[in-house]
Design brief:
The chain has about 150 residues and is mainly β. The chain contains two helices and eleven strands. A hairpin with a 3-residue loop joins strand 4 and strand 5.
């Protein structure tokens, strides 16, 4: 392995596989019961599309409900897992967090939490999101955090 390849591997290990301190996450993610150091990891080689989902993303449903999407694991088949958390606004009084397991198909990550369906679609420079529950739909724009 030449020096350039070694540097690229080291950079990848430090940026993609580095533990993230739970205390350094957005406030909405602090409702999650995360270990002090959790690892954002991959299982095998990922496509560029899947790699864009990996990490921490923040947004506001309807422009007012702060939320965080943490995708901490994606395998080669597009099976993804992580945490979805939310803060409070005029109608949502209690913050919360739930782990999720979902699937990435094309440019879309899909999963369900209770009676809600969440859809995240990669756009140019951000993730467009939809939250569908009881026939009602809310949308948001999520951006990569930090």
């Amino acid at each position: 392995m030449d020096n350039r390849t070694k540097l690229l591997v080291l950079f990848w290990l430090l940026t993609i596989c580095a533990p993230t301190l739970a205390s350094e996450l957005p406030d909405t993610a602090k409702t999650c019961d995360l270990p002090d150091n959790f690892l954002i990891k991959t299982d095998g080689e990922l496509s560029e599309i899947n790699r864009r989902f990996l990490g921490v993303h923040t947004g506001k449903w309807g422009g007012s409900l702060p939320s965080t999407l943490i995708v901490d694991s994606i395998d080669e088949d597009g099976e993804a897992s992580g945490y979805y958390s939310w803060g409070t606004n005029e109608t949502v009084r209690e913050p919360g967090c739930t782990p999720f397991e979902g699937i990435i198909e094309g440019k879309k990550l899909k999963f369900e939490t209770g009676s809600a369906k969440l859809r995240f679609k990669l756009k140019d420079g951000f993730i467009g999101a939809a939250y569908i529950r009881n026939g009602n739909k809310s949308v948001a724009r999520f951006n990569k955090w930090n």
